[in-house]
Structure of Cytochrome P450:
Amino acid sequence: MTATQTPDTLHRILDYSSRADPYPLYAELRKTPVALQEDGSYVISTYRELSGILHDPHLSSDVRNLTHPMPAMQERATPSFINLDPPEHDRLRRLAMRHFGPPHTPGLVTGMEPDLTAIVSGLIDDFAGKERIDIVDDFAYPFPVTVICHLLGVPREDEPRFHLWVNAIVDSLDYNPKTDPKEKLDNGVQATNDLRQYLGGLLEQRHGRPGDDLLTRMANDDGPDGRMTDDEIISTANLLLIAGHETTVNLITNGMLTLLRHPQILQRLRDEPDLIVPLVEELLRYEPPVHIIPWRAAYSDITVADTVIPKGSQIMLMLASGSRDPDRFHDPDHFNPDRQDNQHLGFGSGIHLCFGGPMARLETQTALTALVRRLERPTLVTDPPPYRPSPILRGPIHLHIEQS
């Protein structure tokens, strides 16, 4: 049995006019948990079905398993591990994790806490004398960019160069050949090549040299799995650089916007700093930084909610819809930092659970705690704020506030 959802629902979600509030459309989409689209792809929107398929070994992240690969993917170079399946995915993720967290580097994230606090404090110090602040440009963007540059070993002063490339890459993620100009795809492909070439140049300087940054460690590591090839290191660094700040910018900005819309909770966080840990988990459910996984592939025929998805089909996963599913979360459209059993999909699930989730959590906890403590009577200038183009990585492009 197949279920066909009115295509207009998905098209309206992807349309920019819905960016400020896609949640009513997600509710409409959830009426058909697995929805066949006109182009033969499938959209999954309910928590139970999303959670199940994210753990299904028949779900592939490898473009080679799509019957009809999308144009952007045909032109990409060596994929990062996020676009691979076991055993290659497991090997590369394991090699990268050796330098990013337990068990080989257990103190990396927690050891960054003093540095994160210092960066945040310096950025907020720069607010002095400003009546109007852009939380994005003045804070939520420079903070995680500084952090990921430090971790990877990318010169912070090169940010203006890779910022343009990252924007073009993110903009191309939702490329639709039926509605978008070919230039959008071409710019994304060129930006990917430019960023890879840039990272390759940095990598050449790291071979055989000591250093604590991730590029140097990956370039010189001879662990039990062997050493990554240069192409694999570049693909991993490319993933970490983009994901290491794009999602955190959105999470911090969405978080501040949500707190300003809920002043009682903002005040409560001032009074109860320990509230920040469950509050960030609720943010990941309520206003997540990643809304959609735009494609996965079916290794073989998969049955989801009585719908047979044929082998090779493209599958779109609506993570943000699943995290607002009333069949899983009580009163899901209510922001509640005291929520129990908050198994959201904000960082995905399964073998592709967000690699940098622990760092993003700590960055957001540090950022929001400092903002609510140090900003005096902040107020939104525009609500809703202007949003970035992407329906996949969703967040305000600017968030102007005034403080009295």
Q: What stands out?
A: The CA atoms of residues 271 and 373 lie 9 Å apart. The chain has a mean pLDDT of 91. Residues 230-261 form the longest helix (32 residues).
